[in-house]
Write a structure and sequence with these properties.
There is one protein chain. This protein is α+β, with helices and mostly antiparallel strands. It has two domains: 48 residues; 299 residues, Beta Barrel (Porin), CATH 2.40.160. The protein is 18% helix and 44% strand. It is built from six helices and 16 strands. The strands form two sheets. Strands 1-2-3-4-5-6-7-8-9-12-13-14-15-16 form a 14-stranded antiparallel β-barrel. The chain has a two-stranded antiparallel ribbon with strand order 10-11. Helix 1 packs antiparallel against helix 2. The longest helix has 24 residues. The termini are far apart.
């Protein structure tokens, strides 16, 4: 009964939300739009607070950065709308006609020689809008198969793939809305799964274009075919908001990102040192973290801070800090290294834009991302 009530609330408020997008296009109703936007965030957070936690769910590769630029800035960039096609994977609302005939590719030799990549292409259709299509993949490699007695029996491979199609359209002078549809396939040896997901995004750009903001709901979806019959699992649904501000007389852009808004409290209980987490009687022995939703620690876990240095259109320097990553992936409180920090650069060579980033996830090592993009219309104009 509770699930039915929550589902009806989501549908009803989503309908109101979409209706108010039309009001924005007419240049009025900002307060009503914000009210219903916040209401939808609350409804989804009630529904997913206990459904999404570390280690649960499927298709987690969808959370990985799809470009070197996003990786350098902490993982996602949903508030900036420029000619960077890669950002559409973070927020479909940033898809723009200036990306017409642009192709982009990302490759990362992820942790433990896991190969990860993303490729995308955009096309604008006059009078209709702009579309893009992309493919995301992760290859976990080849593993030895063995039974419970350690007897080896050949090898198996594992990988996951997601095809996305995105569309965006101008809603008003300052607002743009976008949607992405994803088809997901995952295979681990003889176990495979198939699912679908959607991203909904909204983007705002001020008159002078110095201030921009974005709001996204990523991976609203369903596992159509589970790995094991009658055992469907949740997708990595996330709600986030962000704002960016570029200084008028200095080549600096600052971004503040608030993530995991569907789960207000990101704190969790930790096992007591020297004791098993699960006791023989089935109870747990943990140090309870009762600092609360509005504690400084919890608020910071929602926060990513990023900076871009923009001396020219052809050269950028980027820095990011993801507090949640540092809090959860540091080896110990005393030995955290550079976990959570990331940096990168972007530069243009002829008609190609190259981006590189280095992100530290753990003391065990760092991850490198390499991306490049090209707008084929420039070859036609200059060729």
């Amino acid at each position: 009964m509770r699930v039915q009530i929550v589902s009806k609330s989501i549908i009803n408020n989503a309908t109101i939300f979409l209706r108010n997008l039309r009001i924005i296009a007419q240049g009025k109703g900002m307060k009503r739009f914000l009210l219903h936007g916040v209401l939808i965030l609350f409804i989804f957070s009630v529904r997913t607070t206990h459904a999404q936690s570390g280690g649960n769910g499927v298709y987690k590769f969808l959370d990985l950065p799809t470009s070197a630029r996003s990786a350098a800035l902490g993982g996602k960039l949903i508030s900036v709308r420029d000619a960077d096609l890669f950002l559409v994977a973070d927020n479909p609302a940033v898809l723009d006609s200036v990306m017409d005939n642009t192709a982009a590719l990302t490759y990362s030799n992820y942790i433990a020689d896991i190969n990860f990549g993303y490729g995308t292409y955009a096309k604008h259709f006059s009078g209709v809008g702009t579309f893009s299509a992309g493919m995301q993949y992760i290859n976990y490699g080849t593993f030895e198969r063995a039974d419970e007695f350690g007897v080896r029996n050949g090898e198996f491979s594992a990988g996951e793939y997601a095809l996305d199609i995105s569309y965006a359209k101008k809603l008003s002078r300052h607002f743009t809305g976008g949607v992405s549809a994803k088809m997901i396939y995952s295979a681990f040896d003889s176990w495979n799964s198939f699912g679908t997901a959607f991203d909904l995004g909204l983007h705002y750009q001020s008159e002078a274009e110095f201030f921009t903001a974005g709001m996204v709901m990523n991976n609203i979806g369903y596992q159509i075919k589970p790995y094991v019959n009658d055992n469907r699992e949740s997708l990595p649904f996330e709600m986030s908001m962000a704002a960016s501000y570029k200084l008028e007389k200095a080549p600096l852009r600052f971004t503040f990102h608030a993530g995991n808004l569907q789960r207000p409290n990101l704190l969790y209980d930790t096992p007591q040192e020297g004791s098993p987490f699960i006791l023989p009687n089935g109870a747990t022995a943990a140090d309870v973290d009762d600092r609360g939703t509005f504690s400084f620690e919890n608020l910071m876990r929602h926060t990513t801070i990023a900076t871009e240095i923009l001396p020219s259109d052809n050269f950028h320097i980027r820095f990011g800090f993801n507090y949640l990553r540092r809090a959860e992936l540091a080896a110990t409180e005393a030995r955290s290294g550079l976990a959570g920090f990331s940096l990168g650069t972007g530069f243009r060579v002829s008609k190609f834009m190259f981006n590189y980033s280095l992100a530290s996830y753990h003391l065990a090592g760092t991850t490198h991302f390499l991306s490049f993009a090209a707008n084929f219309n420039e070859f036609k104009r200059r060729g």
